[in-house]
Design goal:
Blueprint: E1 2-10, E2 14-23, E3 31-40, E4 45-47, H1 61-82, H2 93-98, E5 108-111, E6 121-126, E7 139-144, H3 145-148
Length: about 160
């Protein structure tokens, strides 16, 4: 196991961390996984990622907005990686199955690209086999706060830059 940690967001109250983990167990190739954490530094507790939203259950507006954005973006990125103008319908199963449930979309970190101490995006992590073959590698996808700002829980809204 080889693990590296990165703090992707820190404002003195909240920290967002990703652990990138590479493992090799003797098979044909190693594998990669990501573990993400949102930390409430003042309360000394871990924040459940779904708690950022009013509702992130299957069928909720937040889930459906993020799911649609992720599916479109991964389809575009996957086609680009494979040198295709678009993903053939029969190859969409990887993406559809790998983004079907709320739990599959909760591996993310908070990002502050403009360094204004407000979250501008969430960066979602998809290890090999979740939305594509091992040969395609991992996918990391930015989801702008504009996509989900309307669905944030009231206590987390001030943390995000909704672009308005």
């Amino acid at each position: 196991l080889d693990a590296a940690y990165e703090v992707t967001f820190f404002n003195g109250k909240i920290a967002s961390v990703v652990s990138k983990r590479d493992t090799y167990t003797g098979g044909a190739h190693g594998n990669q996984d990501f573990v993400t954490m949102l930390l409430d530094l003042e309360g000394g507790r871990r924040i459940n990622p779904e708690g950022l939203f009013v509702d992130f259950s299957a069928g909720s507006e937040a889930f459906e907005a993020i799911q649609a954005y992720v599916r479109d973006s991964i389809s575009f990125e996957r086609a680009s990686r494979l040198g295709l103008p678009e993903i053939p319908p029969e190859d969409l199963d990887w993406i559809l199955e790998g983004t079907a449930t709320p739990e599959q979309l909760l591996r993310f970190t908070l990002m502050d690209y403009d360094e204004a101490e407000k979250v501008s995006d969430i960066l979602m992590y998809f290890p090999p086999y979740q939305v594509g073959s091992y040969a395609e590698g991992s996918y990391m996808l930015d989801v702008p706060a504009l996509v989900f700002a309307d669905y944030l829980a009231p206590e987390f809204r001030p943390l995000f830059d909704d672009g308005q």
